[in-house]
Amino acid sequence: MALMRDKVVVITGGSRGIGLAAARLFAAQGASLALCARGEEKLREAARMLGETYAVPVLPHAADILDTASVQAFVHAVASRYGHIDALVNNAGASSQREADGVNWPVNAVDAVSQPLPPGRFEAISDAEWRAALEQKLLGMARVVRAALPALRAAQGASIVNVTSIKGRQPPPRVVTSGVAWAAAMNLSKALSLELAQDAIRVNVVSVGGILTPQMEAGRARWAPGKTLEEFLAPRVANIPLKRLGSMDEVAQAIFFLASPLSSYITGQCLAVDGGGLRSI
Ligand SMILES: NC(=O)c1ccc[n+]([C@@H]2O[C@H](COP(=O)([O-])OP(=O)(O)OC[C@H]3O[C@@H](n4cnc5c(N)ncnc54)[C@H](OP(=O)(O)O)[C@@H]3O)[C@@H](O)[C@H]2O)c1
């Protein structure tokens, strides 16, 4: 018996990367899906592939988590089609790195303070940059949960999984905006797990370390065209105990576990998928 049959799963940012990998797992277990992303063409392509491969209903709906009306329209479309939501995966977001002095120099939670760091120091971070990080990582998530709550309450025991970064638990040694915004998103997740327990809604977090996605290759091509992908990632991999980046499927498995009935007595938890990069338990 498929574990997610008759379950409605909503994934923001489901058109590629981690969100699409998770959508595959849910579809393989019989879930009915609703996916959003800003780019409509890629979203429809993903929905078509999932529907054809797994023979499950898939609703693609272009939406921007930074725009309240857009999020409300997405959730309205989901509720009209399915009536309720059993699992909401808040995954949408851009993993862009900060550009400082014309150089894009990724800063990671696993970076050592002794290694070369990017030139952009704290005092160079503008209010606009702070606001953008909070919009992207905290308010986007809050907006989607707020809009989805009536449909989540209409399910018999729903689950929310918020995808964040281990930067929210272990700040990188420089360029702090995204770590602070992720920390706020995790604090919100814990608070929601307390508030929504009375509605039988569980709320958990998957905090992600370095994951190999097509975006990494795009970053290498743009910022280090003279290097191989292995050379580009070497400084980062050096500080990861498992000595490699993770795969999108490895993150998707954690999302699936926390969204599914397999974790029915788990709420308010954060599961790091990071190859051991986080230095605490
Ligand atoms: N990959 C990593 O190493 C890593 C590490 C830490 C945290 N994360 C987080 O994990 C999540 C997934 O990462 P990923 O690597 O799979 O990213 P990705 O490959 O860039 O995919 C992001 C997805 O989100 C959508 N999206 C982006 N901004 C959106 C917006 N404003 N509204 C609606 N949809 C939006 C994208 O589609 P459109 O562009 O068409 O909208 C796409 O479907 C992100 O929140 C990211 O910050 C990733």
Order of helices and strands: EHEHEHEEEHEHEEHHEHE
Largest sheet: 7 strands, parallel
Q: How large is the count of helical segments?
A: 8
Strand order of the largest sheet: 3-2-1-4-7-8-11
Overall pLDDT metric: 94
| Cα separation of the termini | 35 Å
Q: How many structural domains can be distinguished in the coordinates?
A: 1
Strand % is 15-25%
**Cα-atom radius of gyration:** 18 Å
How many beta-strand runs? 11
- Supply the helix-strand structural class: alpha/beta
Structure description:
It is a single chain. By secondary structure, the chain is of the alpha/beta class. It has one domain (8-271): Rossmann fold. Helices cover 43% and strands 16% of the residues. It has helices at 17-28, 40-54, 68-82, 127-153, 177-196, 214-223, 229-237, 248-259; strands spanning 8-12, 32-37, 58-62, 87-90, 99-100, 103-104, 159-165, 202-208, 211-212, 246-247, 270-273. It has a seven-stranded parallel β-sheet with strand order 3-2-1-4-7-8-11, with helices on both faces. A hairpin with a 2-residue loop joins strand 5 and strand 6. Helix 1 packs parallel to helix 2, helix 1 (17-28) packs across helix 8 (248-259) and helix 4 packs parallel to helix 5. The protein is globular and about 50 Å long. NADP nicotinamide-adenine-dinucleotide phosphate is lined by residues 12-13, 15-19, 36-39, 42, 63-66, 91-95, 163, 165, 208, 210-211, 213, 215. Pfam families: adh_short. This is Short-chain dehydrogenase. InterPro entries: NAD(P)-bd_dom_sf, SDR, SDR_fam. Belongs to the short-chain dehydrogenases/reductases (SDR) family.
